[in-house]
Amino acid sequence: VQLVESGGGLVQPGGSLRLSCVASGLPFEILRMTWYRQRPGKERERLADISTIGKPTYYEDSVKGRFTISRDDVNNTADLQMNSLKSDDTAVYYCKADVPSTSGEYWGQGTQVTVSS
């Protein structure tokens, strides 16, 4: 499975960005999708999951109410809409795909998000 993230960039505090992750190599509808981030000097942290049937199943506490995960099985994408961004959201954002009940997991290369005035 190949995953390619896009949509990162520089945004001012309070602004919004929409990240997208395009998957190829396996039928998209069997993939559970997850967004992670790694902030400078910190470990990678899980932000949001969406199930194979399109139900968001997890949000990390600091992003609840600000970030929304979604998927489009026609275009093989999983998006992360990020609103009310803070400087603390500055990180490299990664998407991960896995097939439930199997050990396989796949990662994208990451996209940089910088929140700064």
What does this structure look like?
With 117 residues, this protein is mainly β. Helix content is 0%, strand content 53%. It has strands at 2-6, 9-11, 17-24, 32-38, 44-50, 56-59, 67-72, 77-82, 91-98, 105-107, 111-115.
Record keyword descriptors for this entry.
117 residues, mainly beta, 7-stranded mixed sheet, 4-stranded antiparallel sheet, 11 strands, 53% strand
Describe the structure in brief.
0% of the residues lie in helices and 53% in strands. It is an all-beta fold and 117 residues long.
List the helices and strands and how they pair.
Layout: E1 2-6, E2 9-11, E3 17-24, E4 32-38, E5 44-50, E6 56-59, E7 67-72, E8 77-82, E9 91-98, E10 105-107, E11 111-115
Parallel strand pairs: 2-11
Antiparallel strand pairs: 1-3, 3-8, 4-5, 4-9, 5-6, 7-8, 9-10, 9-11
Can you write the helix and strand succession as a string? EEEEEEEEEEE
pLDDT below 50 for ≥5 consecutive residues: which ranges? none
Number of strands: 11
Give the N-to-C terminal Cα separation. Answer: 37 Å
Helix content: under 10%
- Per DSSP, the total helix count is 0
Strand content: over 45%
Largest β-sheet summary: 7 strands, mixed
On the 0-100 scale, what is the average pLDDT? 97
Radius of gyration of CA atoms, rounded to a whole number: 13 Å
Structural class: mainly beta
Tertiary shape: globular
